[in-house]
Queue: 4 jobs
Job 1
Amino acid sequence: MRSYVPNTIEEQNEMLHAIGMENMEELFEALPENVRLKRPLKMPQGLSELELSAYFDSFDVSAGNLPLFRGAGAYRHHIPAVVGAVLSRSEFYTAYTPYQAEMSQGLLQSIFEYQTMICELTGMDASNASVYDGATACAEAMLMLRGATRKSKVLVSAGLHPEYRATLNTYARFAGFELVELPLNELGLTELSSLEQNINDAAGAIIQSPNFFGCVEDLAPAANLLHENKALLVAVVNPISLGILKRPGDAGADIAVGEGQPLGMPLSAGGPYLGFMAAKQKYMRNLPGRIVGQTVDAEGTRAFVLTLQAREQHIRREKAASNICSNQSLCALSAGVYLAAMGPQGLKEVATLCLQKAHYLRDGLLSLKGMSERYPNTPFFNEFVMESQSDTILLNVRLREKGFVGGLPLHRYFPGNGGILYCATEMNSRNEIDAFLNALEVSL
Amino acid sequence: MRSSAPLLFELSKTGRRAADLPPMDVPELDGLLPEELVAKEPLPLPEMSEVELIRHYTRLSRRNFGVDNGSYPLGSCTMKYNPKINEQLPACFNKLHPLLDELDLLPVWELMHALGELLCELCGMDQFTHQPAAGAHGELTGLMLIKAYHDTRLDHERNEILVPDAAHGTNPASAALAGFKTIEVPSTADGDVDIEALKALVGPRTAGLMLTNPSTLGLFERNILEISNIVHDAGGLLYYDGANMNAIMGIARPGDMGFDVVHLNLHKTLSTPHGGGGPGAGSVGVKKELIPYLPAPVILKRHGGPALPDYNRPLSIGRVKAFYGNFSVLVKAYAYVLSLGGAGLKQASENAVLNANYVQHHLKGEFGLANDRVCMHECVLTPGPLLERGIHTTDIAKALIDRGFHPPTIYFPLIVPEAMMFEPTETETRENLDELIAAMLDIAEVSKTDPEALHRAPETTPIGRPDETRAARNPVVRFVAEPKE
């Protein structure tokens, strides 16, 4: 049994005596007798490091090594070794929120650099230090819409990730928002006429691009329509796609949010990931959570501090813009190192590899019997929906037997929907895609 | 020596890069995206070589202080040592996509379920969800559960959450977001909840009470059972803010005190690293009657079968984030609990409380004490006589930095003017504590002989005290290149 308590029993006793106590029991005298636990916790005996490692080795995690053609909000990308090297610095990972700026300049500067790169990536003026994930970034953006417009009706594209939509529903129910869904048209894109019909009294709209079904939305017409009606556009974007796609800020979005996991974070069964949030200057003070700003010390040395704290819960309490306290600093650090390692050229190359491989996969799938594309006339980035005459669940079972993880059956989120959402990234080599297509052909 | 470090953007050189990629191995097609959707300009990201990138971040790391650098007695944050084996273990799950078929994620469900069972035993609760990503997120989730509970019983009038004046700022903020009105409950001079005031405040509008126990004053709420009866009798529920759970593991359980909902900060109590502000995890536990409202999916074992996610939860509040939670953080917390076992957890709490009392005992002569009682895992001091010499809490904090320590939490709780909240945790040695005490006593001494020196602190850091007013008044929140002359 270990407890990481360094002091020996003798030292503990000496310390007890030093404060005038005989035993540990005396420390807890304030606890009424009837709230005390009078038995040991029912837990297995503590494990040594060796036993612990052996136990974890016993988990069968082999599915993680299979060729993967699934994305849907979490993407397998190459993570440059520099990311892990920087993250392993315990000056970063064993620190807490940089409350004491003088001894936290490293973290503060890394967050300032992250904020700058998120602004550059999204075409925005200000970014916060991050929130929990893409879904909560969406929910926080919804709160921003109310903060900026004092209205509580929010239009949500049906192309938004269903788990983000579910998260929005939860926040909306309790925080008092009215959500109106904007359906997709036959091209798989947000129906603008519906936006127009519902725009009255709306704080803004939340539109994802590429959307959940992979379709790349043209955000500019939606932004124009919203601005004419004094409403805001929240764009939910895949950061890797911005290596080639127009930035949401350039397309007229007021707020850009998204899931930062593709920027150097492993899949890790769903987390921890990174919610990034950026906004145009006008909405900087509506951003929730930590924000790092630049200033100077008394001698004029450049310094970084947590700033604009008047928005936050520890000052404003029940009147705060959000209840969020921490950020995902270490994940933001991953994203910062990733973006700096890739640079503009590297990010463009990753995006191009994703785009081309996804299209190669699509073309291969189309050549198979009974396969068709649901939105054949709509541009896509790294994901697209296919329809098959075979049962989608059964198809994936057969593929899995052959050692492949196929696309995501849309049935998971939309009961009765027979589509499959396929994904390819730079991780899928041509050989792997060809082998997958062969396996699929005999499974159909 | 004061110095700034260059920014990535100042180091950037056109054409440099730190990452390479395999060549395109599929036919490259043109015109896949229409012109109007494609970026016209290259992204203005920095361009760095690998060696310069690593040196940059290594330089930044040396301008930062973590638990591995030294004592970090930041109250209410439980900055205990982060065991190294726990950092290695999540790697085996790194390649698992969250939307793999359920049967390919069996180890994930098994681990989440097993951790939930252990936390139920630790806290005296009936079911845990690991979906909330942090403490404040757990609070929000827990309050939504309370709202859903009352709503299902058509008890729509219950829209008030009682929060003691000593509470964390997230408590009222979370309550507001969950749709509640916050009612503040005063504390007595002794640091307990004012029972008479509480009795006057509860009623048919009471949805619940949020409480940290031990409180943010580092004191155990002695009247907890009476408080719990008062709230329950009024029809409300009790919410336990688990930020201070490190004081009572294996000694007392929130469930046995009458709490209906708890959140645990796994990054505090269960030793997962704070990551410079996150990621953490804010697992939420509930008593039986609240299980139906938990966020879906709930990980369940049925009829002796394997643990699996259950999505069929008609009364669930829904999702509070995508996927299942901060899984890697859960792995580390689980490894910690397995390493310590029940006896180790109790030993950790006992020593956390011993260390805090040791510090309090040796400092209360020279400094002020918010409440002269046996404290739990943290103690709240004030500058006491140092104030008369013009020395404030900030000065003491900054002088501690020069003496090699991370300062305590300062100016919190709000009800104690000039508060300094020390939480040494159980993983500090007696020598560390003696040095911390010596540093504080030295500061007290210097305040008599050379108070100006304390106003100049910190002098050993790369920067002096930053101008925070300027940062807020004229916000510069991103780098903008100077226009070239």
Job 2
Amino acid sequence: MTKLRPDLEIIANAIPGRTRVLDVGCGDGALMAELRAHKYVDARGLEIDVAAIEAAMAQGLSVVQGDANRDLADYPDDAFDYAILSQTLQTTERPDRVVEELLRIAPRAFVSFPNFAHWRVRMSLLWNGRMPVTRLLPVAWYETPNIHHVTVSDFRDLVRARGIRVERAWYLSGDRPTSDAAATWRAEHAIFLIARG
Amino acid sequence: MASLLHQIQHQGVTINAPLPLDSGQVLPSVTIAYQSYGTLNADKSNAVLICHALTGDQYVASDHPATGKPGWWARMVGPGKPIDTDRFHVICANVLGSCMGTSGPATPDTASGAPLGMAFPVITITDMVRAQAMLLDHLGISRLHAVVGGSMGGMQALAWAAAYPDRIASALVIASAARHSAQNIAFHEVGRQAIMADPDWRDGQYYGSARAPTKGLAVARMAAHITYLSEEGLTEKFGRRLQARDIKSFGFDADFQVESYLRHQGLAFTDRFDANAYLYITRAMDYFDLAEPHDGRLAGAFAKAKDVRFTLVSFDTDWLYPTSESRRIVQALQSVGAPASFVELSAPFGHDSFLLDVPALDRIIAGTLGRGG
């Protein structure tokens, strides 16, 4: 098995075995396959890209073609123990509604996103006056799928305002963990485990 | 030609047990013609049932006995093919009501010996599936690795999941729907009226005579054939091009290539299909609505199918059974928690895409069947 992306590995380690999991934006199913193989998780996926769905289906994974903006509504309440939305929140039309949908479908959700307040981003804006193009945000502003850039502080504010609990958070700088205290400017990437309030 | 069709010998079995039908009638015994490929393994766990479409037959990967053409899914079924007969024991049975050896309107009445014609009871998709289950009982196969079908074959796969969820591990439903829409019924009614308006139909009692309602059947096929293609496909293939002429005839010959093509399709169809069988099978499709017995809630049909793995595939140019119908099924499956995969593939051929060269479909079918054969 190929090595998982660092944020997916954190999620894979944090999910208890034999649970029901929905991976929203599951790609080719790498995380689902890992969860199925090592944790006996009943994993289902939602993905928009046909080639990625084909790859997941060829591994015998259950993946439905769909769009996080529209098709989460098709899942019943509490259909899963965990929902996962990795590196997708900032691409959705209404991130707040997507988060609420995740916590309707499952009592707990993992949400990961690139932190737009990372120091490199801040520097780029401050010194160049331009939208940053970085390792995690590699595409120019006019063609980026990231239509709702979000920072660690923004996300904390959103969940607080909606009465959502943060059960755990992980922050990555490069592929290495960084501390909570410095996260707002040192984290390139944040992973939150959120739960209904 | 119809009389020749009924002279073909098919491999099959007559099961002397009653087959109760949705209509309330009972067939006292049933003959099922079928083909099989590949070897059934010792624990009988590698059986795959392929369900054919309206005008399909059991010759899924064998040359057709009437036309000599290769099997209708020969590209999909065979050694090393996506449905790999080196690994799976593949069974394909002619559906109840059809005309390739299975009990249908051409079956002789047990008392008089004359073909039943319209005295054959009206059947449903679920009745077809019941007959297939009787065949599997006869073959000693209690559980299928997969049931696979496109179009009406997909309806049978869904009906299998609803009626016998414990007997199937997975269902592959391609270019299909869980109900016939008003538009679907309307096109079928055009076809049936064309057959019944043919003076040679004679209330279905034409089997002994020299003349069968081939004109009506050909028109029915022409109308239906249009629904199997996409507008884009028709335009690309024929456009407004004229057939073997430079100028319009100002008459009613087949001036346009598309007319000539449809006439040929209609005529060729009458060599391999029976008009009464067409009436019965289109009726069965029109009656199909899996949600109906569950107060219109499709999820009710799948309440006991939580452990069946479903794979649904639709095509973006299929307007007969559009993607929205597959999505409706997926939604119902999700609401009962059944493991379901769904993808809409892009292909230019309309509804017929499931029979044609769509490599992504091959990969998905091979991938879905692949595990645990």
Job 3
Amino acid sequence: MNMSLIKSFKHYSGLSKSGINNQKTSTFGDTEAIGKGRFWSIVSVITLAIVWHFGSTLGYINPIFWPAPSTVWQQFISISQDGYRGFTLWEHIWASLYRILIGFSLGCLVGIPLGFAMGLSEKVRGWFDPIVEFFRPIPPLAFIPLVIIWSGIGERSKILLIFFAALWIMVIAARAGVSSIKLNKIHAAHSLGANKRQILQHVILPNSLPEIFTGMRVAMGVCWGTVVAAELVAANSGVGYMIMVASKFLATDIVVLGVIIVGLIGYSIDIIMRKIEAKLVPWKGKS
Amino acid sequence: MSELNANHISMTFDEPNGNRVEALQDVSFNLKQGELLAILGPSGCGKSTLLNIIAGFLAPTSGAVLNGNTKLTHSGPDRGMVFQQGALFEWMSVAENIAFGPKMAGVASEKIRHTVDDLLETVGLQDFGDKAIYELSGGMQQRVALARCLANNPDIILMDEPLGALDALTREKMQSLVLKLWKETGKTIILITHSVEEALFLGERLFVMAPRPGRIKQEYYLPFAEEGLTKDPRDVKTSAEFIAKREEVLSMIWGMEEEIMGNNQAVGL
């Protein structure tokens, strides 16, 4: 593709940079000037698909190691029609998603108030700081053996693991959110006659939303990793379970299908969260 | 009619390295209802500390501040505060920011709406009520900060370098707005500034403070604020008296700097 062709494609596809950014001459290191690169994202995905397709059909890639896209697609059709190991594809996906949503929500429900309390009270911070800092670096997967002993391989064990994965991240995000407030704002609220509860509700809480959202996005990613890994070890449904069973039969097409599903759902969740963030925290990075 | 009294305020604190800093030493003054006091001084002279004590965010080591007969120990809605920048609530619209004080006090929403509309007009932001804070320029944001403070109808307005972050032209316009609000509302105002010109132009009274220990070095009563209400600000600021005062105050502050740094270093600058 020559440059003018790329340029006109970018222009007509609505993916070109707009306004003054298009006319800047020193763009290296100028993050605004380099744009979002959506065009190149599309090129990247298409290129990968082409390499995958031809690599397989021309015999460069051994299907035992990495199956052809057509095989994966056929597996996708057949599993979504007939199911796999007693559950439909959607039930497997929903099983993983459900565990994440419950565990993640519980993590937020406990973690955010705890983080707030740690940000606002010396006593709470002192009590919980060693606990949080001790558990935070431990990968939740290290608890799998314990969790299985405590609550078997049912739903509870997975939800507990995901809860652990989300909890520490949310505690730290909420605490950072509280300490991100400028003293000016608190003083202004005081001198406008607000009491402690009002300052918490109308000033500290909304001010911490950007950090809390960042924390939620990070936690969501970690939760996906944790649920799939937990299902690999102990489960009878879920995308991770699907991958684990398929690997025992060397069914790499199903393994790859599972990997793609995990990637796509993780990506979609992040896009949704970014949209919610833009809606709820429009001032982020603008003050 | 209430009077603000600062009685023998001293403030000392210990730095982490063990040094004892005397931020304020025996500062006393009376401020009548409706007076506009400007406080000027080099950095480290304790002017922000003084303002924070009056606002009730700091407790003095000794001495007291009285509003009428009430001793002021905590911050309260009787003393409104306008900061240099960054004290508006970005998650609220312009109108919601202005409504904050009355809303927290539980004023009826119909009444709040009237107050907000009136104030938007007073500060010249009629059509900006629904705008987000980050959509406004720095000067407009300070207009919102002034309106938010006035919405609470405080006895005293404390301004901590409210125009310090603005460009020269916006700053001049805002100075006129401060004078206009002062005249229209009859509020007592204490304004801290780094700018000699601004202090002379806005201060009906002016304290020049000196550092180490922080104290009031010189007090002036000035005619320029009154003149600024009727005359063109440029004419006031270029009048012979104004320029003479400006030079007087400037050389006083230079004198303090030299005292601190020693003659050699000051000349070396």
Job 4
Amino acid sequence: MRPKEPSRIPFPQQLDSMISKMKERIEREVHDTGYFRNFAEDIYLNKDFYGRAAALCVERDENLDGRALLLLSVLHPSLNTDASVMLMSGNRDAILRYMNDKNFKNEIVKTIQQLSESLKG
Amino acid sequence: MKVPQVIYRTFFSKPGIGVPVNFSKLRVNDTCLNISGKTENVLEAELGTAAVQIAIDLMKKFEAAKQQVDNVFSKLRTVIDIQNRAKGVPSIHSKIVRGVKEGEITSFETAQNFVLDGIGSRVISKSLNPMGKKEIAQMIDDVKINNAPLTSDQKVLLQKYIYGQKLTPEQEIEAFPLFEKFAQPLIEKRSQPVVDNLLLSITKSRMIKEGLTIEDIKAKGLLSDDLINRLKKENIEPMDITLINNYRGFNGLPEFSGRQIQALRKATEGKIVIHSRPDLADYNRFPNTGYTKDEIKDFALKASGYRTAQANIIHSNGALGELQFRGELTNRFAEYEHIAYDMREGKNTLGCLFDDFKEEISKLSKDDYGEYNLYLEKCYNYYNRLELGLPAVKPKLPEKFNQILSDDSLRMLHDKNEIMLKELGKDFQPYFTAVV
């Protein structure tokens, strides 16, 4: 079986697409109360980064109903390990507000770089 | 003008393992480390000098750092032992030689910061009592994936996996996430007291350094009510954590569960990076990335299944340390399993007893080494299952390998080596010899 091929779309456009898909899914899948599934959207990274891929993930808060954690994760080239960090936690509206901030995208790029570096050790 | 003579010597901090040093610099404690334009021998000695200086600094900081770890974990009923050590000269030397090769070290300070595990501490947790068939059956009934109970087929598959019955490779891949979910309560039963104290320590540090208040903690939901009460009542030792590794093999369980990792993320409000496995029972953080499952497995074969939760820590006195959390049986296995890894990393800390083992390991082709690591991973999983009170069958070393590589043989070599080192170290005093 062939490995999945990285996309040829330039990184900034892929990043925009990941953020926008994630916002849509948060809007649709994160509920004010009750159970919802964890989910993630990922993109391949280009050769500027050590990591193979980056992902935005939403994890349901195991202790607080209706709340979630927004994570950013970078996958090691071996695919075995990732380095992840929590960007923020809160309810759906708070997470979307955070993602709509004008600095969000820049922060993501900076953090991808940091997480990628942390995987080198 | 008279040029001062530089004296090079070999420093033996342990019997039989010497490190070259620039003795002249060491005598005046000159920590200026200039690594450019040096011949290989001179560079080795310069790095040896830095290794001795770093080791001396660590020894000065060791007692306070040890006390800090003891204060946080020693009174827990689930903790049976805490082991501490300051990294020795040969080990620091090997590490900074690697750091220079990787271009990470340019000065004494960068060398010092490269030794992240200068003070190493291990918090060893007690095993759980063996479980009976009824308890296991009840736990299988309770497993939920994505909030839904398992189907009857999944239950049969999980049961077979738990009892080590023959499965196809495809069935094993399907069964493992179920097993991970099944084992989550056991993982938490064993490690929760340790994780709770870690959460309290990290939060206490944030209260001191960042001005975080109990009201903030409540409002943001950073800790459970129980832990907030403990934070108010108890005298908590603060601790700074910068990174957590939740290492495990391809079919291995982690030391900390996903729920516990989430609690650590929340307590630090995203200030620590966590290295873990991205595909979990409930969801995969990289659903669209990667290779086929077979290829992922192929990558995983390169690792030995090493399992430990490991935190990078900055002790209150500034010393950099590594805090490991393990079970009693996997800790014992890791002590000698790591020999092959250390050897491949070029660590200059193995005694002559390991010569035959070293030779045998170095002869292994890449594929054979991968297969050997698969055996080591099975050993890790075997000991971990016993720690969690689960049924387990001791793995056999495949016949193609020399028996010196087996679990029993490695343990015997390790134990003999420990006795030998103890004997040699009885009246040993560190010393310098002249280098020709």
